[in-house]
Each structure stands twice: as structure tokens, then as C-alpha cells.
Write a structure and sequence with these properties.
single chain; 242 residues; alpha/beta; Rossmann fold; binds nicotinamide-adenine-dinucleotide
């Protein structure tokens, strides 16, 4: 029986790479995304993949999603909270609506998925895994990230630590991966000038690739990752070492 992984934002740049990695590692992946044509289309070239269309800013829809997954597969072994975006209005001119949407897409979605996932993980064998895709933006204040984006990811990392502590004896491990510039469609939110400056600050002279981040997610979800919980793993080619 294959282990079941739920990956949110599955149709995006990082999400697709994580889906591919976990399938290659022998899991069955339930890929969740708001973008229906993109996530449904992934079934055409993937085996061991179940697409789910869901707006993760809707807590009730998340409850229904995990209910469907549990009825179909009997439970969940891994959750990757990867869905997210970066709204680019800058302080102090950030509307209340944009702040709410930023927190809803990046943080509340992950919070609600964790609430349902820990229930779906109950009674499953081995160490079950939650991996939250955070961002270097929560820690590096030289780069462009606006404050509501930073705060949404910092909140996520605090949730990571709480869940790691809370569920250690239940063998649910929870870690964050916080990447810097990774080449995905999310680059489109940046002007060419901001993008060039951010990429030239990367020590290797180029952005990271989604497959490189996905390999770390795969490692955490593999048996080698059983002993890690409560960590925020920064991936940035060594950019911020002082
Ligand atoms: N690309 C980077 O440089 C970078 C750096 C640090 C962190 N991150 C984080 O990585 C994660 C993945 O981003 P990406 O770069 O692959 O971006 P992306 O835009 O390619 O993918 C994001 C995916 O999330 C989905 N999504 C957005 N809102 C959703 C919602 N409400 N419900 C369901 N799905 C939704 C989108 O449809 C999309 O498929 C994000 O959390 C992002 O903050 C990215």
C-alpha cells in the first residue's frame, strides 16, 4: 500500500516539482490547486496522482477535501503546504483586503490543512510528515519582500514549531523549508529590475530551480527525515551567512 501525500499549490512551479519528486519516491500524491485546468491536466502525464480542485482560502472546502481524501485512501501520511503567493503592495499603502488575502492564501490555508491532516494521519504507520513551504523573506530584510508576505511566512514557521512540539510523541514531524529566489511563475509578480537585483544577489549568480527545493521536501518525507522536526531549513546558496 503506497503512502499518501497531499501537496497544495500542486500546479505551480514548486508544487509540480514536489509532486514529481514524491511520486518518484513511491508515494501516491493528491495534488490540490485552485487552477482547475492546470491541476486536472496533470493527470494526463502522471500515474499515482489524484487531482483536487480547491480554493484553500475556504476552511469548509478544506474540511470537505480531507474528508474526501480520507474516505478514498483511508488517511494521509504526508502534507506539503506549498500553495502561496506574494502580493506586492508596499507599506504603508497595503489595503486591509490585501493583508487579509495574503494571510489567507499563505497562512490560514496551511493552518486549516494542518488541522485536518493531523486527524487524517491518526493511526497511520511510521513517522508522518508535514512540510511547510515558507520563505527566506521571513528572515532576510535586505530583499524586496513586502511586510505582509514576510509576516505570513513567519506565522507559518511558528505554526511549524508548535505542531512539531505538540505532536512529537505522536510521531508527526513538522518542518519548514524557506527558499530564496527559485525560478517559478511567481517571478512574474516582480518588475524586471527587482528580479534582476534579487537574482544577482544569489551567490551562484542564478536562481535556484524548483527541483532543488523538491529534493529537500522528498528528503524530509523519506525515512531519513524521521529525526527532524521543528526546523526551519533555509535554502539560499549561502546568501545570508554573516
Ligand atoms: N519562487 C520563489 O522564489 C519562492 C521563494 C520563497 C518561497 N516561495 C513559496 O513557494 C510556494 C510555491 O510558490 P511558487 O513559486 O511555486 O509559485 P507559483 O505561483 O508557481 O505556484 C503557486 C500555486 O499555488 C496555487 N494557489 C494560489 N492560491 C491558491 C488557493 N487559494 N487555493 C489553492 N491553490 C492556490 C496557484 O494556483 C499556483 O498553482 C509559495 O508558498 C511561495 O510563497 C517561493
Amino acid at each position: 500500500m503506497k503512502r499518501i501525500a497531499v501537496v497544495t499549490g500542486a500546479a505551480g512551479g514548486m508544487g509540480r516539482a514536489i509532486v514529481d519528486r514524491l511520486i518518484e519516491d513511491g508515494l501516491h500524491v493528491v495534488g490540490v490547486d485552485l487552477n482547475a485546468p492546470a491541476v486536472l491536466g496533470m493527470s494526463a502525464d502522471l500515474s499515482d496522482f489524484t487531482p483536487e480542485v480547491c480554493d484553500l482560502t475556504d476552511a469548509e472546502a478544506i474540511f470537505d477535501l480531507f474528508d474526501r481524501i480520507t474516505r478514498r485512501f483511508g488517511g494521509v501520511d504526508a502534507l506539503v503546504n506549498n500553495a502561496g503567493t506574494c502580493f506586492m503592495s508596499d507599506f504603508p499603502d497595503i489595503s486591509a483586503d490585501e493583508l487579509d488575502r495574503q494571510m489567507a492564501v499563505n497562512f490560514s490555508s496551511a493552518f486549516h490543512c494542518c488541522q485536518q491532516a493531523v486527524k487524517a494521519m491518526a493511526g497511520r504507520a511510521g513517522v508522518r510528515k508535514i512540510v511547510n513551504i515558507s520563505s527566506n523573506g521571513a528572515y532576510n530584510f535586505d530583499v524586496f519582500d513586502p511586510p505582509h508576505y514576510r509576516a505570513s511566512k513567519a506565522a507559518m514557521d511558528t505554526l511549524t514549531k508548535d505542531l512539531a512540539r505538540r505532536y512529537a510523541r505522536d510521531k508527526i514531524a513538522c518542518n519548514s523549508i524557506a527558499p530564496a529566489m527559485t525560478q517559478t511563475p511567481l517571478f512574474n509578480v516582480l518588475t524586471a529590475e527587482v528580479l534582476d537585483r534579487a537574482i544577482s544577489a544569489m551567490p551562484h549568480g542564478h536562481a535556484m530551480q524548483p527541483e532543488q527545493i523538491a529534493a529537500w521536501v522528498g528528503f524530509l518525507i523519506s525515512p531519513a527525515g524521521d529525526v527532524s522536526s521543528g526546523n526551519v531549513i533555509i535554502l539560499n546558496q549561502g546568501r545570508d551567512v554573516r
